Amino acid sequence: MDTPRPFVPRPEPHYEDEPDPQPEPLDPGEGHRVNAPEPAPLTQHGPARIIAVANQKGGVGKTTSTINLGAALAEYGRKVLLVDFDPQGALSIGLGVQAHELDTTVYNLLMERGVEVEDVIKETGVEGLDLLPSNIDLSAAEVQLVTEVGREQALGRAIKPVLDRYDVVLIDCQPSLGLLTINALACADEILIPLACEFFSLRGVALLMDTIEKVQDRLNPDLKILGILATMFDPRTLHTREVRQRVQEAFGKLVFEAVINRTVRFPETTVAGEPITTWAPHSNGAEAYRMLAREVLAR
Ligand SMILES: Nc1ncnc2c1ncn2[C@@H]1O[C@H](COP(=O)(O)OP(=O)(O)OP(=O)(O)O)[C@@H](O)[C@H]1O
Ligand SMILES: [Mg+2]
């Protein structure tokens, strides 16, 4: 199991002055929807689809994908709630929220009676995009929940009162398959798995699939795999193209057509504290997450 790393943005200065590279189109394969349609506008909101963004491997783009998919869905008029479910608080920080200064976070929501989800929700700078922030306090919840009755359902119980107000809830999981991630999978309708196009990325996916099956058997029979998102793709290296091809062969139409390129723009957005869709709205990265949002809404 990977232990959580301290959150350090890793800029790659050698890409700084180059335009974002374009991914090479791959044969999307049978059953693939080419160019997911523009989503229809909504006249009313809810009930929410709950999507857990999970992979126990660290640094594969879970948090980046949660922020930017959420922001792209909000651009399409969806009401979105992002749940920071990692004690590192990277999702909160990436949206410019100084979570370490907050008195009430997801931790209080899970562990204290009388704290309501409405008291913890924060609006972000993006219209339609709200946040349930976390900080290091959440690491204590993992320990304290162990002795609670219904310990796997704590998050589901906590967010239930607001599900009617949102169209999509995205849960950013920590890089582990511990009790917090199990809580996310127990209340989710679907799981989105970011997979970095790197040599070792397929290692550990079997363990993740095994965990998903156990959760389906024991806690949440309706949990589905929404899709697998190829991230950190560098079209200039044969290596990442090969890894992406292998991912495509292994998972077929579960793989989203949207591919997230490796670009310094993403670490920059963390520093800026806003999604790429507002920080660099015309970049490839912003477009890729919009394409992912269309695919998610079409699935
Ligand atoms: N497509 C990308 N290109 C380049 N850098 C990226 C990309 N996506 C994310 N990053 C950077 O890589 C680092 C890890 O990304 P991110 O935090 O989204 O991964 P994670 O899976 O949430 O990590 P953890 O497992 O630690 O929670 C961050 O510094 C982020 O800015
Ligand atoms: Mg993360």
From TrEMBL:
InterPro entries: AAA_dom (IPR025669), DNA_Partitioning_ATPase (IPR050678), P-loop_NTPase (IPR027417). SUPFAM superfamilies: P-loop containing nucleoside triphosphate hydrolases. Residues 1-10 have a biased composition (Pro residues). Transmembrane segments: none annotated. Gene3D superfamilies: P-loop containing nucleotide triphosphate hydrolases (3.40.50.300). Residues 49-225 form the AAA domain. It holds the Pfam family AAA_31. Residues 1-45 are annotated as: Disordered. Belongs to the ParA family. May play a role in septum formation. PANTHER family: COBYRINIC ACID AC-DIAMIDE SYNTHASE, P-LOOP CONTAINING NUCLEOSIDE TRIPHOSPHATE HYDROLASE. This is AAA family ATPase. It comes from Pseudonocardia broussonetiae. The lineage of its organism: Bacteria, Bacillati, Actinomycetota, Actinomycetes, Pseudonocardiales.
